[in-house]
Amino acid sequence: MSTVGSEHRIVVGVDGSPSSIAALAWAAEQAERTGAVVEATAVWQWPANYGSPLVAMSGLDPGQEASSSLERCITEVARDHPQAVIKAQVVQGVASQVLVQLSRGADLLVVGTRGHGELVGALIGSVSEHCAAHATCPVVVVKRPGHHDEARAAS
Questions:
Q1: Domain 9-44+58-154 is classified in which CATH homologous superfamily?
Q2: What angle do CA 152, 43, 102 make, to 5 degrees?
Q3: CA atoms within 13 Å, Cβ hemisphere of 88
Q4: Where in the chain are the domains?
Q5: Which of 50, 60, 66, 98 could in theory staple to 93 by disulfide, Cβ–Cβ 3.0 to 4.6 A?
Q6: Per residue of the chain (155 residues), what is the pLDDT tens digit?
Q7: Residues paired with 151 in a beta bridge
Q8: Phi-psi category of 51—alpha, beta or left, where left has phi over 0 and alpha has psi -120 to 50?
């Protein structure tokens, strides 16, 4: 989770959902225009069962699953944005907290929104809302594909 020199950085949260792939594509297009480096970031946690950690099942590796999913997303987006420099990083932690931390020194933070609605958002929280409220750089929230107004900016 380090800042690379003085290069321009666009941090993107990628969880494999359609909206996060759309966010990565938006960031890649912006990077092609500006020469910034895209830091595609997958954040993972050990699954919890009613507040206590699950007994690790043989072969369960959420970090490796996050890494594989991230690589698939980058490969998909890179086909349409061959000039974009996209770096992958996989971090263990709470997505909203990790992305806000990575926003320090970045030019942009780009996240997708799953659009669960107000009730689910209030119950489980919203990574995009947390990032928009706490990031130290401008935030672009990309709606899930199929919605008009593909991206909106927050500061």
A1: HUPs (3.40.50.620)
A2: 60
A3: 17
A4: 9-44+58-154
A5: 98
A6: 444 445 899 999 999 999 999 999 999 999 999 999 999 999 999 876 655 555 555 567 889 999 999 999 999 999 999 999 999 999 999 999 999 999 999 999 999 987 555 554 444 458 999 999 999 999 999 987 665 444 445 54
A7: 142
A8: left
Within 10 Å of residue 77's Cβ, how many Cβ atoms? Answer: 24
In sequence order, the β-bridge partners of residue 142 are: 112, 151
What 8-state DSSP symbol labels residue 59?
Answer: T
48's tokens: 């919890």
The percent of the chain in helix, strand and coil, each rounded to the nearest 5, is 40, 25, 35
Give the type of residue at 130. Answer: H
Nearest CA to 152 among 112, 115, 101, 124?
Answer: 112
Measure the CA angle with vertex 84, ends 150 and 1; round to 5°: 90
Asked if residue 38 lies in contact with residue 28, where contact means CB atoms within 8 angstroms, the answer is yes
At 152, give phi and psi (nearest 5°).
Answer: -135, 145
pTM here is 0.81
